[in-house]
Amino acid sequence: MPKVSFTFRGLIAPVLTPFNNDSTRTLNLSMIPQYADLLVKRKVTGVLVNGTSGEGPSMSVSERKLVAEAWATATRTTKQHLMVQVGGASLPDVLELARHAESIKADSILCLPELYFSPTTTEQLTDYLRLVSLAAPNTPLLYYHIPSFTHVNIHMGQWLESQNDHIPTLVGIKFTSPNMEEGAQALRACGSKYVVFLGNDQLVSAGTALGMDSFIITSLNMLPELVLETVTEGLVMRNVMRARDNQQRLTSAVMAISRHGTWVETMKVAMSLLTNMNLGPPRAPLCPLPTQAVTSMAKELQGLGFDIRM
Questions:
Q1: Model confidence at 283, in pLDDT bands (50, 70, 90)?
Q2: Tens of pLDDT along 115-155?
Q3: What is the DSSP letter of 17?
């Protein structure tokens, strides 16, 4: 068994990082308490910091620490689960970030694979994550499987089955992939020993049909009620038709948002349109959306019945 306890199940928002609209996109940490409060009031009981949506790999080690510390302070008040993503850097920096996450009492750590000298076997991935685990021996560790970004395609069901406690603190994965057969195998691995957080906004109802009860999806930032209703109908009420209808509305919103640029570029705009939080522009090489794209997104979301703040 893992050497740590991990009991959290439910919804975790992969939070966006607030930047100032200046030449270098400096951090705007003053917005984080308000951001945490917004999410917890809308029943989002966990946050993932410095992930893909949070532009973690676009920040320096010191910036990532500052963001994690700001969220650690905020979540002490809101009592939300704090997960910190530490990967996407050189191994010494990843280990430093893991040690830092443990020092600020993060509830869990998420880690990408090595992104340049990428693992191609289950053994290589296990050896890498074991080093991360040993750097933070008292904090639950999850692997971040997102092959569309990392191009690491190690089968998660097979990898989890191979573990046999090689990684002392491993408790599960974030599964950001459309391959639900693989996701189902991961969920059943080792007698369902590991938690699987589904990371695909358009497959929430499909995940609940498989028995998945935990999700880390970007739309939780701006459409948490719709996500929660989809999960509840599919997992608790077992109303497949209602879950499917809610999923279709969520999928339509995600498509209306993401068609106008890359994922983070568009989701930052959607956050400002659908909530009272303007988290600033993304950091280079990502770019702010043109005014025409913002206007078009707003009209599409309005057409789908969502309230827009302009």
A1: very high
A2: 999 999 999 999 999 999 999 999 999 999 999 999 999 99
A3: P
The tokens of 199 are what?
């990371």
C-beta neighbour count of 227 within 10 angstroms: 25
CA distance 215 to 22: 33
| pLDDT for res 272 | 97
Both tokens of 60, joined, read 């320096």
3-state secondary structure the chain: CCCCCCCCCCEEEECCCCECCCCCCCECHHHHHHHHHHHHHCCCCEEEECCCCCCHHHCCHHHHHHHHHHHHHHHHHHCCEEEEECCCCCHHHHHHHHHHHHHCCCCEEEECCCCCCCCCCHHHHHHHHHHHHHHCCCCCEEEEECHHHHCCCCCHHHHHHCCCCCCCCEEEEEECCCCHHHHHHHHHHHHHCCEEEECCHHHHHHHHHCCCCCEECHHHCCCHHHHHHHHHHHHHCCCHHHHHHHHHHHHHHHHHHHCCCCHHHHHHHHHHHHCCCCCCCCCCCCCCCCHHHHHHHHHHHHHCCCCCCC
For the purposes of burial, counting CB atoms within 10 Å of the CB of 249, is it exposed (0-12), middle (13-18) or buried (19 or more)?
A: middle
Q: Is the pLDDT of residue 279 over 90?
A: yes
Token pair for 254:
């995600």
pTM for this model (two decimals)? 0.97
User: What does the mean pLDDT of the chain come to?
Assistant: 96
Strand 141-145 relative to strand 108-111: parallel, antiparallel, unpaired? parallel
Place 180 in a pLDDT band, splitting at 50, 70 and 90: very high
